[in-house]
Write a structure and sequence with these properties.
six-stranded antiparallel beta barrel; alpha+beta; OB fold (Dihydrolipoamide Acetyltransferase, E2P); Elongation Factor Tu (Ef-tu), domain 3; 3 domains; elongated; conserved putative lor/sdh protein from methanococcus maripaludis s2 fold; four-stranded antiparallel beta sheet
Length: 388
């Protein structure tokens, strides 16, 4: 019996302890659980400031020559010499000799024509002398017979003299043509320019009118810029009609390097494209290949065919708020941050938008902080944290 109690008592104590622990756990008061507040959203903001705005109208186009020429042969013959600049991409100056053709045939023609002129001059001198003799003979006969009538033109050899003078004029014209043909065996550059395409070369025989090369002037280039009806609202095209210009900045890239060049819109083409319904204006660039730059400055050539983005100076828009376009939600809403760092939607009056900015006339006040970070499903009163 004593041994049984020694075994039973520890078991009883253990059971009582477990039961007491269970009762204490079940009877403890429940702690009040409060939901954790959602974390504040981190946003970037900017401060609204009303400033004078001049609108910028953007467009795109390709650089093209203002003056482009197909050089052709005005005489027939064999090309005997070409200039080192007579290659595709070669630069030349006005008056430079580009091509020489075999002049020997034309030199001989000049000599023959000169000889014909000399013969005609001799014939005119002879007829002048004969006409003088004829007049003296007629005057002598008239003194012998006062009743004789007036002398005829044929008697005084006037037709023969007129024929000799006409022949001299014809021979002079042939001489001038021969000299002009000889001059045309040397083809000179009509302007400062570049060879776009070389067609003929040394040793080639060409006929009159044969194409020799295509060239263009490098003093100025042009860019055709399409404008929509919406763009035209913000440009003063009437200035172009009076001979004025509109400043434009052309942005280009070459070899991965971006650069800009200043230009001027000088004219409008005056008609809307029947297909695209756009109006083209023409921007003019002086010295597109940057050949006249100072020697210590890097070249920024706008090569023919370069694609450029244009920013045309438009009309003044008055004092407006210029906000990044992505700060605008659903076209007319801006989210504003108050002093308690809560966001609220603000309806605004948008005057114009472009690729970068939205221009706002009303709905904001100077000093308002507006959200520039896109927010997924924003709610009025939502708390935010400011980035930076």
């Amino acid at each position: 019996m004593h041994g049984f109690l020694k075994v039973l008592l520890p078991v009883v104590f253990l059971a009582v302890a477990i039961g007491a622990s269970f009762i204490m756990i079940q009877s403890r008061p429940e702690a009040m659980q409060k939901p954790a507040p959602p974390p504040s959203l981190l946003v970037s903001v900017d401060v609204a400031e009303r400033r004078p705005v001049r609108f910028i109208v953007t467009s795109r186009g390709s650089v093209s020559p203002r003056t482009e020429t197909t050089l052709v042969s005005e005489v027939a013959g064999q090309i005997v010499e070409v200039s080192p600049a007579f290659v595709s991409g070669g630069f030349f100056k006005r008056g430079d000799v580009l091509i020489r053709m075999d002049p020997r045939i034309y030199e001989a023609s000049v000599k023959r024509a000169r000889a014909e002129v000399a013969k005609a001059q001799t014939q005119v001198a002879t007829e002048h002398a004969l006409a003088g003799y004829a007049l003296e003979d007629w005057e002598r006969l008239q003194r012998l017979d006062a009743a004789r009538g007036p002398a005829s033109d044929l008697t005084l050899r006037k037709p023969q003299l007129q024929q000799a003078l006409a022949e001299l004029e014809s021979k002079n014209a042939e001489y001038d043509k021969a000299r002009e043909d000889l001059r045309r065996t040397v083809i000179r550059a009509p302007y400062d320019g570049m060879i776009r395409e070389k067609i003929a070369d040394v040793g080639q025989f060409v006929n009159v009118g044969a194409q020799l090369a295509r060239a263009f002037a490098v003093d100025r280039a042009e860019v055709r810029l399409p404008l929509t009806q919406q763009d035209l609202r913000y440009l003063d095209l009437e200035r172009l009609e009076g001979g004025g210009t509109l400043p434009v900045t052309l942005h280009a890239e070459f070899g991965g390097e971006a650069f800009s060049r200043s230009a001027q819109v000088v004219r409008s083409e005056g008609v809307f494209d029947a297909t695209s319904r756009v109006l083209y204006v023409v921007a003019q660039i002086d010295d597109p290949y940057d050949l006249d730059r100072p020697p210590d400055e890097p070249a920024r050539p706008l090569r023919i065919g370069t694609f450029v983005a244009a920013e045309i100076a438009g009309t003044a828009g008055g004092d407006l708020f210029a906000l990044p376009r992505h700060a605008l939600v659903r076209g007319t809403t801006v989210w504003v941050v108050d002093e308690a760092l809560a966001i609220h939607p603000r309806e605004v009056d948008v005057v114009r938008t472009d690729d970068e900015f939205a221009y706002i006339a009303a709905g904001l006040a100077d000093g308002d902080r507006y959200v520039t970070t896109p927010i997924d499903q924003p709610l009025p009163g939502m708390k935010v944290r400011l980035d930076g």
